TrEMBL record:
This is GDSL esterase/lipase 2. Keywords: Signal. The lineage of its organism: Eukaryota, Viridiplantae, Streptophyta, Embryophyta, Tracheophyta. Belongs to the 'GDSL' lipolytic enzyme family. PROSITE patterns: LIPASE_GDSL_SER (PS01098), PROKAR_LIPOPROTEIN (PS51257). GO terms for molecular function: lipase activity. GO terms for biological process: lipid metabolic process. It comes from the Eukaryota.
Length: 295
């Protein structure tokens, strides 16, 4: 009897080990599948999480002083808001940590992604030159991150990370604000409505293509808000009452061109996927009916 029981006991024990082995390899695989995707953020003040704290610029392009941060972080992080930014909320929903600014000195690990955005930045290097991190420089910073990821993780894992990551953009508004501040009628010229808007969209499109070449596949964008209705714009134009309609028209031209360009990219680039949020409508709706949205 004892001889019979012993092997049975052994069998049960090895079954347990075997099951434990499956469980642990399953949970490993489960963990791999559940690994959060990385989140890379590009653009302007709508997205900056503090990059401009680390560049030599004017306080106009910084948000590292009170009351910025007042209602959430209780410290001025460099986000141009009292609370969290849209990428902060997305990170939260995606169960990612807060995505830090690329220039924050203690940031060396990019497996969850990183934020390249800069207050005041446009797509064009001519937009607030020397005071912001323009989109092309944001792209060169991304090259450095991409190289570091390949060195650290090896090519295969880096490729997986880059191709499953989400790349989010909010940029373009400053390409129109900067010249508007110099000449509040600049947008009336046909050159601005045609060549200039094409140049802004063309520069953004080139950056997207460069990131795609490195393996990026999943992109997200926000279009421009009704920029003629922003208080600063109305104040500069000194128009009483209404919005600067002509300026908002430029945003509409930009938004149509953006949407067309993204559709082209999707049909020309294999596996290119994107989502375009109609910020023009959602922002306009919120500023026209603030109380409906708790403001
Ligand atoms: C928030 O910051 C203010 C000013 O720095 C400080 O007086 C206050 O105690 C802080 N509140 C919390 C909840 O940390
Ligand atoms: C401002 O822009 C308008 C429209 O392009 C132009 O006609 C005008 O000459 C400009 N004014 C100045 C001072 O440059």
């Amino acid at each position: 009897m004892e001889r019979a029981i012993f092997p049975e006991y052994l069998w049960a024990f090895s079954t347990l080990l075997f099951l434990a082995g499956i469980a642990s390899s399953c949970s490993d695989r489960y963990w791999l599948l559940q690994k959060p995707v990385a989140f890379f953020i590009f653009g302007d003040s709508i997205f900056d999480a503090g990059n401009n704290n680390y560049i030599n610029t004017s306080p106009r392009f910084q948000a590292n002083y009170w009351p910025y941060g007042e209602s959430f972080f209780n410290t001025s992080t460099g986000r141009a808001t009292n609370g969290r930014t849209i990428p902060d909320f997305i990170s939260d929903y995606a169960k990612l940590p807060l995505i830090p600014p690329y220039l924050q000195p203690d940031i060396h690990d990019y497996v969850y992604g990183v934020n390249f955005a800069s207050i005041g930045a446009g797509t064009l290097v001519e937009t607030h030159p020397g005071l912001v991190i323009d989109l092309k420089t944001q792209l060169s910073n991304f090259y450095k991150v991409e190289k570091q990821l390949r060195d650290k993780l090896g090519c295969e894992e880096a490729n997986t990370l880059l191709s499953t990551a989400v790349y989010l953009f909010s940029v373009g508004g400053n390409d129109y604000f900067a010249p508007f501040q110099k000449n509040t009628s600049f947008f009336e010229s046909e050159y601005i409505q045609k060549e200039y808007t094409s140049m802004v969209i063309g520069t953004l499109t080139n950056v997207i293509q460069e990131i795609y070449k490195l393996g990026a596949r999943k992109f997200g964008f926000m279009n421009l808000t009704p920029i003629g209705c922003l208080p600063l714009v109305k104040a500069l134009k000194r128009e009483t009452g209404g919005c600067v309609q002509g300026f908002t028209e430029v945003a509409k031209i930009h938004n149509r061109a953006l949407s067309e360009s993204l559709q082209k990219l999707e049909s020309n680039l294999q596996d290119f996927k994107y989502s375009l949020h109609d910020f023009f409508t959602s922002f306009g709706e919120r500023s026209e009916n603030p109380s409906k949205y708790g403001n």
